Amino acid sequence: MKNADMPAMPSGIREDYNNLAQEPLNLGLTKREFFAAMAMQGLLACPGVSATNRHIAIESVDCADELLAALGKPK
Questions:
Q1: Is 17 helix (H, G, I), strand (E, B) or coil?
Q2: Pseudo-torsion of CA 58, 64, 66, 68, nearest 10°?
Q3: Residues 15-30: b if buried by 16+ CB within 10 A, e if exposed
Q4: Average pLDDT of the segment spanning 52-68
Q5: Whole-number mean pLDDT of the chain?
Q6: Rounded CA gap, 31 and 39, in Å?
Q7: Percentage of residues of the chain with pLDDT beyond 90
Q8: Which of 28, 22, 55, 50 is nearest to 39 (CA)?
Q9: CA spacing 20 to 30 A to 23: which of 2, 8, 54, 65?
Q10: What is the 3-state secondary structure (H, E, C) of 28-43?
């Protein structure tokens, strides 16, 4: 599973004793969805920005993808 598809804030875990693994019970939003929502919130909070909803949505997803790419690079 890619980092972008990992849960942003999982709650609880399910024990799988056969495979010695733990999986989140409630996945909720992916990291990509969460980052895009936060970027969209920031873009919509700017009173001087005049853009279509589609443009804001596209920019929000682009911001999320850039953040995930930066986080995926080694230090």
A1: coil
A2: -150
A3: eeeeeeeeeeeeeeeb
A4: 94
A5: 83
A6: 12
A7: 44
A8: 55
A9: 65
A10: CCEHHHHHHHHHHHHH
Domain boundaries, the chain: 3-72
Q: Whole-angstrom Cα distance, residue 35 to residue 61? A: 8
The dihedral over CA atoms of 25, 28, 29, 30, expressed in degrees to the nearest 10, equals 10
Which element (helix H / strand E) includes 20?
A: none
Q: Exposed, middle or buried by CB within 10 Å (0-12, 13-18, 19+), for 65?
A: middle
The pair of structure tokens assigned to 68 is: 């995930």
| Helix, strand counts (H, E) of the chain | 2, 2
Contact yes or no for 52/33 (Cβ under 8 A): no
DSSP state of 14: E
Q: Which residue has the higher pLDDT, 10 or 64?
A: 64
